[in-house]
Amino acid sequence: MKTFEHIFATSRDRAVEVLHKALAHMKQYGWISGKYEDPASQRCCAMGAIRRATEDSYERSDAQALLCQALGRPANAESYVTGWNDTAGRTEEQVRELFRAAVDGRRAHI
Predict the structure, then answer these.
(1) Is 81 in contact with 67 (CB distance < 8 Å)?
(2) What was the pLDDT predicted at 74?
(3) Which residues contact 20 (CB under 8 A, 6 or more apart)?
(4) β 37-38/43-44 pair status
(5) What residue numbers bound the domain in which 81 lies?
(6) If you write DSSP's letter for every residue of 24-54 in order, what string do you get?
(7) Could you report the per-residue pLDDT of 44-72, keeping only the tens digit for each?
(8) Confidence class of residue 5 from pLDDT cuts 50, 70 and 90?
(9) In the chain, what is the greatest distance between 2 CA atoms, to the nearest angstrom?
(10) For residue 79, which of 91, 70, 67 has the smallest C-alpha distance?
């Protein structure tokens, strides 16, 4: 029988993998603000890159929760992550730093 700790660790591992894939997509195609993605250029915002990284809603939710944690916000606040991404003056490097902090399990200093 799997323990709660094992299930949580497996869930976190999958979420980290999703964040790695999303970050790789943004590195290859670029980042965008104001919409989830630009189909022509394949640039994505933070949540758009997560959506491209996995179709599994649980994995998306877990990855989003790690971003929220790195921002010091309640888990699963997609509207917060989207709003943060779209804040005037936000940079692609800040978004990438958020993803790196979430993967590392630390608070982003942005």
Answers:
(1) yes
(2) 80
(3) 103
(4) antiparallel
(5) 4-104
(6) HHHHHH-B-SSSSEETTTTEE-HHHHHHHH-
(7) 999 999 999 999 999 999 999 999 999 99
(8) low
(9) 49
(10) 67
**Strand, helix or coil for residue 102:** helix
The residues facing 43 across adjacent strands are 38
Return the SS3 of 8: helix
* pTM, two decimal places: 0.87
pLDDT tens digits, one per residue of 75-84: 766 688 999 9
Q: Residue 19: inside a domain, yes or no?
A: yes
Number of domains into which the chain is organized: 1
Q: Is 109 within the bounds of a domain?
A: no
Integer CA distances (angstroms), 83 to 47, 56, 69, 78, 87, in order: 10, 22, 15, 8, 6
Look at residue 110 and tell me if it is in a domain. no
State percent of the chain over pLDDT 90.
80
Poorest-confidence range of 6-20, 42-56, 95-109? 6-20
**Residue linked to tokens 């982003």:** 108
Please check whether residue 88 lies inside any domain of the structure: yes
